[in-house]
Amino acid sequence: MSLFKKQRQEENAAVEDTCRPEDVIPLKEQIIYGAADLFGGGQAAFISVILLAFFTNIIGIDAGIAGTVIMVSKIWDAIIDPSMGIISDNSRWSKLGRRKPYMIMGGILIPFGLAILFAPIQNFGASSQVVWMVFAYIIYCSISSLSQVPYMAMSSDISMDYRQRNRANTWKLLFDIIAAGIFYLIPSLLWGMVTGENATMSYTTFYFIIVFGFGLFFGIPLVIAGFTIKERAPFDPTEKKKFNIKDFFKCLTVKSYVWHLVMYVTAFLTLDMISAIAIYYTDYIGGAIDGVVVDLGFIQIDMGPIMIIAPLMVSAAIGIAISYVIKAKFSKQAAFRAGLPLYIIGAILLACYQRSWPPILIPLFAMIMGFGFAGAQSMPWLIFADTVDVAELKLGYRPTANMSGVMTFMRTLATAFGTGMVGWVLGGAGYIEPIVDENGNSILQQQPESVLVAIRVLIAVAVTVLLTLGFIASIKYRVTDKRLARIRYFVLKRNESGVESFTEEERAEYEDLKKKLC
What pLDDT sits at residue 8? Predict the structure, then answer.
């Protein structure tokens, strides 16, 4: 037996010895819970890669209008997320608990949402297309919120022990990464088959793959998890909450939670914007429009969004192993920020790329970005459950769904603004939509220099500004595993016998924790 394996077994045994039996999550349940995030990781990747380009290059909507459609729909998503958090908090009608019925319903409805969103409306009039896309995306976002806000709340509610939660959320992270990799890559491959003069796949086939292939892949694990996993965090079955804007945002008074939000939003908004611009970048700067081929030595691949997405996700997956080593040796926030300089360097190199340079540099630059993004991609999911503990220390209760709702609310608003900005900037720069030929194929058009400059600026400036903010937030975030253990001790003792039962030394430590973290 290797030294590492023996040490891991000893650590696991120690955790089980100090964990209350009711907080232990069986391995099978951890895996099922994690697999339910195939939708969260997969659909976010899939939508961010092709939705804007689908609007402009297949449906034929103006880039600026397409950005506005996405923004309006996402604002609705931001509004419904808080409501979904309150609804699940107040749900008492099912033996399955507060969260799981909505996971089941959302999982069942996902294929229906995709069928509406990607419906073949190319022959509709321009106004009808815009109206359809607004309502279709609103419906899809509502279905997503129905399952995702309660599911995110389960990341804290699945156990009261932070070590057990870390295990379960590590499985969640693993499946999130697998899904993101699959659904960054497959849509990128399909995109090249369904667009352009040499398209080899009909839109009808593309549509059925999305609805029945992607839809069932996303929905079934959520339904299984809804019938299988347990909600272990206690709650008062007689207490009902009313939606109140002030109370909803009360969690923003928790300092550690605010810094976590900044880390989370900046990291994933960066990825959303890079994903949204990848198709345009490889088409017009990478040279896909002119048939540029990347020679990897053992194979030659046509230039396309996969030349950014594939190396970025592969290197990110490798980098996550490194980020976990950093987490174990230092902290989650140290793992978050460790690679951010690499991500910024890779983005700047992509922005500076010239057509006279070897095309192989594009995937190499993307690999640099992937290594840099690994920690920023993985750590926010583990940190969220910790901030719920900090909030309980300050507020006296666990606002799990509330915090989950605010988290998705903030990211949704940021994504609405970020994706909308990509469309607005491209439209303002004079983006020329493809021409649809007699066979229904979208023929790309050469773009003016202003559009190429806009693409470069979006990549370099967005990444640099956003990740610098995330780096600063990770320094300000000071929650550690040692402090989490003390938080759990103080919360349990306070709930059992009140603050007055603390010794003088405990009272001083308790107040110091609240001052530093809350």
Answer: 44
